[in-house]
Amino acid sequence: IPEPMTFSDQINEYNQTLVGDHNFRWGYLGEQLSRSGHDVETLLQQLAAFQVAIPSWALGTGGTRFGRFPAGGEPRSLEEKIEDVGIIHALNRSSGAISLHIPWDIPHDYAAIRQLLQANDLIIDSVNSNTFQDQSGQPLSYKFGSLCHTDADVRQQAVEHNIQVAEYGQKLGDECKTLTVWLSDGSDFPGQHHFRRAYQRTLESLQTIYNALPPDWTMLIEYKPYEPHFYSMLIPDWGTSLRLSEGCGARAQVLVDLGHHLPNTNIEQIVARLLHFGRLGGFHFNGSMYGDDDLTTGSIKPFQLFLIFCELVQAAQDAVVRNPPVAYMIDASHNLKDPIEDLLQSVQNILTAYAKALLVDTDALFDAQEANDAVRAEEVLRDAFMTDVRALVAEAIRRQGGALDPIGLYRHLSIRQQRIDTRGKLAVATGL
Ligand code: PSV
Ligand code: MN
Ligand code: MN
Q: Can you give the residue ranges of the Xylose isomerase-like TIM barrel domain (predicted)?
């Protein structure tokens, strides 16, 4: 009796059908890159090392307040979410971490979860607190805020929740060392909040959480200009996140979510500023047309995504920059696409933007900047941006054992249908 095929066998078999075309395209691109002075092996290693975490809440359709259209076969438990991220990572070898949201993802059997993670070659790298909803059995309400609340008992409850979330994280493995705090606190009407007092209460709450974290943990503070509150958000911008993180300590950092800016904000400049101050802690990638749309990363503004990566690449090469390692994650959840396909597309777009940023001739760029040659500077960037790097990204994934066309193989194997068969057509992801 022949042995059943492993997933890795299936990837190899599928890659065999594509490798002829791939080798032709990669042969040309590799040669072209070498001719322009790039070390192709180094580029492949840099791409292979790049990992983007998947949030547990992106594996189901998010819906809107007007309705939800589930994909079918969505994960109903933390275990099934790990299985789904396992598939993504097996296909692209670039999504080796998961971010959990507590209480949606409270583990029941830690040892079993750790084993499942290992079997899927995954880690849990961060945990997110939730004080934007009231949970059943919770004594006090967050209707009027959590860490900023006027009532000290509500603040205390929210502080304790955050500390507990970090405790869950510590039990999930040594790799989990990040607590991300996104606050929905804010006001809807002029006069509702005493802005300065609300800020001060938030700072003190965050300081209490920060001081309770293990010494090797980082606290990321995320900002957002509007929603769910529409007159003021407690942490609306990077300036507020920066001041709050400075007020807590060196391991408190700013988290930039691409969808949390007003239209046309120069996000790449914000990224450069935070890198300059050594306070860029993490990213939530998504695509945005209007605001917090959570669309596929790179689907709307691929040039901006590239410019953001240019700042990251330049900072990594600059000895003056003293920024800790940045945590990369996707934060997306919408109604139409199969969530796994969307995540595969997002990671592909992120790797593409990163690859293009690695191709920028920084010396030529800096020379043009010093000479105030705006045209030349822009042309240097465009030269990298216009390069078709898909074969480079595919080769980096292939060399790690991933699929040359991750979405193609996902469809070829009918994985969504398999999920529907085992989990049910109406299975809806937990926690959204
Ligand atoms: C709400 O805007 C949000 O999308 C934030 O970006 C958080 O990171 C995420 O939810 C999870 O709490
Ligand atoms: Mn986010
Ligand atoms: Mn958001």
A: 107-293
**Buried b vs exposed e over 231-249: b needs ≥16 C-beta within 10 Å?**
ebbbbbbbebbbebbebbe
Residues around ligand 3, an ion, CB closer than 5 A: 292
Question: Which atom of ligand 1 lies at the shortest distance from residue 255's CA?
Answer: 8
Calculate what percentage of the chain has a pLDDT beyond 90.
Answer: 94
For ligand 3, the distance from its centroid to the CA atom of residue 96, given in whole angstroms, is: 22
Within 165-237, strands assigned E span: 178-182, 186-187, 218-222, 232-233
Going from the Cα of 182 to the center of ligand 3, the distance in angstroms, rounded, reads: 9
**At the fourth CATH level, which superfamily is domain 7-423?**
Divalent-metal-dependent TIM barrel enzymes (3.20.20.150)
Torsion angles phi and psi, residue 220, rounded to 5: -100, 135
CA of 193 to the centre of ligand 1 (A): 22
Q: Given this model, what pLDDT does residue 102 score?
A: 97
Residue 250, sorted as left (phi over 0), alpha (psi -120 to 50) or beta, turns out to be alpha
What is the Å distance from ligand 3's center to 341 Cα?
20
Judge if the beta carbon of residue 284 lies within 6 A of ligand 1. yes
Cβ of residue 292 lying under 6 Å from some atom of ligand 1 = yes
pLDDT average, residue stretch 302-314:
98
Residue 56, judged by CB atoms within 10 A of its CB (0-12, 13-18, 19+), counts as buried
261 lines ligand 1 (CB under 6 A): no
Nearest CA to ligand 1 atom 2: 292
Q: Tokens 């590239």 belong to which residue?
A: 306
The pLDDT score that the predictor gives to residue 432 is: 57
Please provide the average confidence, as pLDDT, over all residues in the chain: 97
pTM: 0.97
Which range among 66-70, 198-202, 266-270, 356-360 shows the weakest confidence by mean pLDDT? 66-70
Say how many Å lie between the CA of residue 258 and the centre of ligand 2: 8
Any idea which residue has 């900002």 for tokens? Answer: 223
Instruction: Give tens-digit pLDDT for 345-402.
Output: 999 999 999 999 999 999 999 999 999 999 999 999 999 999 999 999 999 999 999 9
Q: Angle between the 267-277 and 238-248 helix axes, to the nearest 10 degrees? A: 20
Question: Which residue's C-alpha comes closest to atom 7 of ligand 1?
Answer: 182
- Amino acid sitting at position 211: N
